[in-house]
């Protein structure tokens, strides 16, 4: 285990849940069309896992869509397709406070290939794990040295909510020292506009705090005296003086990336009041 990882924090992050209200769009032909599904999902999980474990059985059973294939299923929020390769919690955080339960729609036809990727969710997840390994250590040797069983366990443990199984493998990938922090920063102007994704080489020795890293990436939003934006990770407002190396080890998502949502602070209409 990394010397910076706190198992209690890791468990709290893993246990974070998001309530969903899932409705089948009215253009689909199905039984019980007006009956939504209500479910609590892990923030660290992914929509394809939700499909496999909850939605697909419901589509085939409760909704009577016996012939639907898992690769035909996709999701949207307010008519905008949701990126299935993003963690579910990140998708919600990018919306800056949508009402709960989060009301999303599930579709079984007309897959929007112009907006959503096609491919294996597990392969995409492992690709992110490898990228994080390369950023952190300068190679993917640690991932490549895992057995085939351990490769599969990283993904399967998300679907089965098996915290111990996941960390039994992942602890071998995030040990010290770290060259650069695997970090993705999402700049959002409004929930209706797509976020701007920022990545750069962020060394924890050079940028010791989260605020220092963000000042390097977004100097106009994070001047030293008065930050102009809020920082959200796993739905939590995170202090800028949080040590970056600690945040990377304890607040990263299951893909080992620190996903940071930046929301510009709203200007007050009457600042003097």
Task: Please render the helix and strand layout as text.
Elements (H helix, E strand, L loop, with lengths): L6 H8 L2 E8 L12 E6 L4 H14 L13 E4 L2 E2 L6 H6 L8 E6 L13 H17 L3 H4 L3 H12 L3 H8 L12 E6 L7 E3 L11 H8 L11 E5 L2 E2 L6 H8 L6 E7 L9
Parallel strand pairs: 1-5, 6-10
Antiparallel strand pairs: 1-2, 3-4, 3-5, 6-7, 8-9, 8-10
How many individual helices? Answer: 9
Structural class from helices and strands? Answer: alpha+beta
Strand content: 15-25%
Strand arrangement across the biggest beta sheet:
2-1-5-3-4
Rounded to the nearest angstrom, the radius of gyration is: 20 Å
**What kind of sheet is the major sheet?**
5 strands, mixed
- The total strand number stands at 10
CATH class of the domain at 16-107: Alpha Beta
What is the CATH topology of the domain at 16-107?
A: Ubiquitin-like (UB roll)
Sum up the overall morphology in one term: globular
Helix content estimate = 25-40%
Label the CATH architecture of the domain at 16-107.
Roll
Give a concise summary.
With 273 residues, the protein is an alpha+beta fold. The protein contains 9 helices and 10 strands.
Q: How would you sum up this structure, described in words?
A:
Pfam families: ATG5_HBR, ATG5_UblA, ATG5_UblB. It is found in: Preautophagosomal structure membrane. GO terms for molecular function: Atg8-family ligase activity. This protein is an alpha+beta fold and 273 residues long. Among the domains are: 16-107, Roll (Ubiquitin-like (UB roll)); 183-264, Ubiquitin-like (UB roll) (Roll), CATH 3.10.20. 31% of the residues lie in helices and 18% in strands. The strands form 2 sheets. Strands 2-1-5-3-4 form a 5-stranded mixed beta sheet. Strands 7-6-10-8-9 form a 5-stranded mixed beta sheet. α6 runs antiparallel to α7. The protein starts with 6 loop residues before the first helix and ends in a 9-residue tail after the last strand. The model has no long low-confidence stretch (mean pLDDT 91).
